Amino acid sequence: MPTFTTPDGTELAYHLVGDGEPLLCLPGGPMRASAYLGDLGGLAKHRRLIMLDLRGTGDSAVPADPATYRCDRQVGDVEALREHLGLDRVDVLAHSAGGDLALLHAARHPQRVRTLTLITSRARALGVDFTEAHRREALALRTAEPWFETAHAAYERIWAGSDNDADWDAVVPFFYGRWDAEAQAHAATDIEQSNEEAAGLYGSAGAFDPAGARAGLAALDARVLVLAGELDSGPLPRVAAEFAELLPRAEQSVQPGAGHFPWLDDPHRFTETVSTFLAQR
What is the pLDDT of residues 66-124, one digit of tens each? Predict the structure, then answer.
């Protein structure tokens, strides 16, 4: 398992999967170990995936200062990995909350990013967020599911203030396009792979300066793919389109029938979309 040392002395690990040109992969969660990404639905057959375990997750060390879990303070970790790999410009893929980290890295180091692939990505870094109304809009697409009534009732309790673990467990099917055995096994690993303390600090006060990030990204010459899931609520496809418009060379793709983990819902379609985008020059 390869490692490198960040500017503040924290030793971080990354995992190599597949062959081909390198693709630096940033996990979401926030602050979930990269193992849940697997081989990204077979994308590892096209690219060598460099899966970073963010500080305090997976095989990476816990930092001396917990304040460094804040998203903007991890930009230096991404840049340190790029330098460690000896890459002048890097292709970056980010999932979910990892999208905020990728956007901040691109805003601070636009000349170091060759392509940026944002998978069902957040964009709080740009001042775009999902809301309860967005969740409700996506929930309305799943009324025919056998689990809908139970999961919907749990969401209503959460919106009313419930912090009951059973309620949070009950709404998990909404995050998957297909709530089958594979999805259930994938969801079951969430808690063991996640650093809850770090997750609470990731987007804490001061992490995001949307005006500053937008200004930095104005200089980004990299091509950007914003891939949304048709059934996902964070972000809805139309919200993903909204922040795609803020990026100079962005294109959007919506994967039919996909939730928040599109490489599980339709691996072939996901891999074809992303590999085709990355192969363009």
Answer: 999 999 999 999 999 999 999 999 999 999 999 999 999 999 999 999 999 999 999 99
- pLDDT computed for residue 163 by the predictor: 87
Question: Is 166 within the bounds of a domain?
Answer: no
Number of structural domains (the chain) is 1
Residue numbers of the domain that contains 260? 3-132+196-279
- What the block records as the tokens of 101 is 């980290």
- 179, part of any domain: no
Token couple for 216: 């930095």
For 12-41, b/e burial (b = at least 16 CB within 10 A) is: bbbbebbeeebbbbbbbbbbbbbbbbbebb
Helices 98-108 and 210-217, packing angle to 10 deg: 60
Rounded-to-integer distance, Cα 270 and Cα 174, Å: 19
pLDDT for res 121: 98
pLDDT of residue 107: 98
In a domain, residue 149? The reply is: no
